[in-house]
Input
Amino acid sequence: MAGNSYGTLYKVTTFGESHGEALGGIIDGCPSGIELDLEAIEVEMSRRKPGQSAIVTQRKEPDAVQFLSGIFEGKTTGTPIGFIIPNTNQKSDDYSHIKDNYRPSHADYVYDQKYGFRDYRGGGRSSARETASRVVAGAIAKQMLPEIKINAYVSSVGPIHLDTPYQDLDFSKIESNPVRCPDEKSAAIMEEYIRDIRKQGDTVGGIVSCVIQNVPVGLGEPVFDKLHAELGKAMLSINAVKGFEYGSGFSGSEMKGSQHNDLYNPDGTTKTNLSGGIQGGISNGMDIYFRVAFKPVATIMQTQDSLDNKGNITPMTGKGRHDPCVVPRAVPIVEAMAAIVLADFYLINKTY
Output
């Protein structure tokens, strides 16, 4: 299986399966001499880990990171940073019913067809549990770039939308509720909606918005390696993501050029920011903001038709522990992938 690495100079490779012994990763290219705050890494992991509230999967994993290399006396050495995250709460018997069956809208069928063999326990390598390794790499990337501020938050759950401009939100309230929505009233409505969806044995999607501030001018490479192209690739590589838009996004297609152009101030900043902080594929120093759309979790606690490996259509009811809505736990994953992209471009920019 190829495609387990991301990045050019700050390169992250992940490994492991949902019900294997451990997940893990190798970070290549991290500069030496960075004094790491290991507690901050644990905080990022706790934001993603399962079982953190009543509206997420009840799988209980401490997600404790064990660093194996690349760190000495609390500082990065410049050598590859290796780490593992042991799995401690697998319940593989919950997945025995899909050994010979393909769940609707999962990767079961395509993995079997492509590789001829699959680890069906918890989805194996296709499980979103893989993203735990990305959060570790992203947490270190954030500490590489302490001046850059990355804040993601839930801006919609199903039909419930938070339309308040991000400039009017208090990002310090993101962690004040289990939904990770900085608007308390909207968060309460979203949480109740997720609880109701869970009672129905169903799932629901949502949107995570992300704002990146204090980005220097010059990150990104023209043509094929544009900053927004890499951010899009990074976000679309996250499990369950179905869409990505930055700046004015699709709404910009309805505007006139006279409305959409960001006019300059004398210092090079712009009066508006419909460009989303990126022009010509390069950061312009303004805030970068984007939205990431997540589909409903495919495993539902209702009976649906599935396909077995002999070509028969058979009924199947979901089992196991699953999120009724992924977006609350996706917030730190979106931040992590954004940090990894920026760390990579930061190092690339230093080569000029």
